[in-house]
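User:
I would dearly like some help making sense of a protein record. Take your time, and here it is.
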Amino acid sequence: MFTNYNEVMDYCTDNSIRMIDFKIIDLLGRWRHLSIPTARFKPDTLIYGIGFDGSNYGFAPVENSDMVFIPDVSTAVHEPFTEVPTLSMIGDIFVITQPENRRFEQDPRSIAYKAEEYMKSTGIADEMRIGPEFEFHVFDHVSYECSPNHTSFTIDADQAIWNSGDNEFQNLSYKVPHKGGYHAAPPQDILYDLRSRMCVLMEENHVPVKYHHHEVGGPGQIEIEVEFAGMREMADKTMLAKYLIKNLAFQEGKTVTFMPKPLYDEAGNGLHVHMHLFKDGEPLFYDENGYSQLSKTALYFIGGLLKHAPAVLAFTNPSTNSYKRLVPGYEAPVNLCFATANRSAVIRVPAYAKSRYQKRFEFRSSDATCNPYLAYSAILMAGLDGIINKIEPTAEGFGPYDVNLYNLPKEEQAKIKSLPKSLDEALDALEKDHEFLLKGDVFPKRLIEIWIENKRKESRKVNEFPHPMEFELYYDL
């Protein structure tokens, strides 16, 4: 939005801005924030930054946790959810050193920057443009409890089919059938206006929207797909889009979750990532004579991404809940393969993207519990490794499989490699296969170690908690 301090202050004066809010990403992918009065924002703020305790962000040990963040004024937006007029911008994390502070190597935004710089240094491409599809649920009520003697959650959505028999209040029917929400129209689609307001708000905050619609899941599942942008820019926009969507819903008395699988036996929420590479403004993924009009460069990128996918999933699917979505029988992929117009493959080539500048593919396994800076960077690094080492996906047994993989005979299915079935399996893969992430000093080895350690703790916590289904299965044995 701005290029320098004076532009920021001119905007603040013209718009009566009283507070400036800084948003900093933690390791797991949540925004933290700190605000100062506009009068305290000085030119030195953009040089020396503002101090904070990095240990509470999951990064540094306590004995070396004093850090600063330096605002990036280009990311500034007029905060839409505060009573006091506020300008909001993202901060980059720096380590305090003499004579000058240095970028913190574990800062996820710094990693995305280094991934783009590494891509340029290879000479292969100078831009990866990506476009994610945001899938999420809008609920009217969510409660949960995790205590030693009581474990439960309760979810409700007014439009859900389970409310068809509700006689306590006026019931106008028009519920959305189980797994029947795809492109549902009003009056079943009671979320249309909310979605439109979300999209208008995103547009006003520099996140261009391609389209929106109701998704398959009957109890309030919707999708908003955005236009393409550069990788790090889209990571910024991913964080902003989630922030805008959740806060607008909350403001209107509803609650949003990007959890991959909040409901059993309903469609889950993915973050399908469309991608293609460019050099000097020219697309690198198109070849009129290639498979599905894909170039060799595109196929090698696919080969690298599929070869490293089990490790990449530790970043793109980093929650235990992620793997409740990646199960057979839904549109979520479970097989390590690629295909054209086939939603059962982890990499799908959209058949409708025919022109040189549109030719691309999508990675369908990822979900929005990821830290987008780390997830998008891992995808790019895996693809670049495929191009550098000419990893041919067909020779590696990854397809193409232009058939419904779920309908293949079991002996044929057994020949296709599978995605990890749990977070622990993905972390095992990352422990064994992470050299491709270290190239160009993009991913610090210490960050990978911290990530694995933290995610192991999450997995153990979930696995050690008794589950209500275990009482149904085992209590009377």
User: Anything to note?
Assistant: The CA atoms of residues 261 and 268 lie 5 Å apart.
